[in-house]
Amino acid sequence: MTEKITDELEARKKAMELLARREHSRFELSQKLKQRHFHGRVINSEIDKLADEGLQSDERFAEAFLRSRISKGKGPNIIHSELLKRGVDESIVSNALESITEEQWYQLAYEIMNKKLGKDAELDYHNQLKLMKFLNYRGFTRNQIEKAKNLLSKHNLTESDENK
Hints:
Layout: H1 2-21, H2 26-35, H3 40-52, H4 58-71, H5 76-85, H6 90-98, H7 102-117, H8 125-137, H9 142-162
C-alpha cells in the first residue's frame, strides 16, 4: 500500500515538474511518465486528477502550441497534423485553429513571403514558384498561398510605381 502511494506521489510530482516547464497534452504527459517506468493505472489516475484540478488541459496546450507554431511561421495544415500527433482530440484541434481567422492566415502567409523574398528581390515567376512551394511546405492552404501571393504582387506593383 505504501509503495502505491509513493508511486502516485512520485508520478504526480514528475507530471507537475513537466507541466511547470510548458503545457503538455495528456498523451505527451502519459508518454513521458511511461518512460520513467510508472504504471499505466497510476499515470492515468494522476493525469485525471491534474486535469480535474485544472493543471493539465489539452485545450490550453492546443492554444499555446498554436501560438508557438504561428510565431515560427507555420500554417494550419502543419499545426493540425502536429497537434494530432501529440494526441490532442480532433474537436479541440479544430476549435483552436478556428480561433485564427482566414484573414489572419493570409496576413501571416504574406508576411512570411515578403520576408523570404527580401527587399531587393524581384517577384518574377521563378521566385513566385519558390515562395509558393515554401509556404506549402510550411503548411498553408492553396487558397492562403494564392491570397498571399496576390497581396505581395500588389505590394510590389505599388512599390515599383512609386520608384518611377
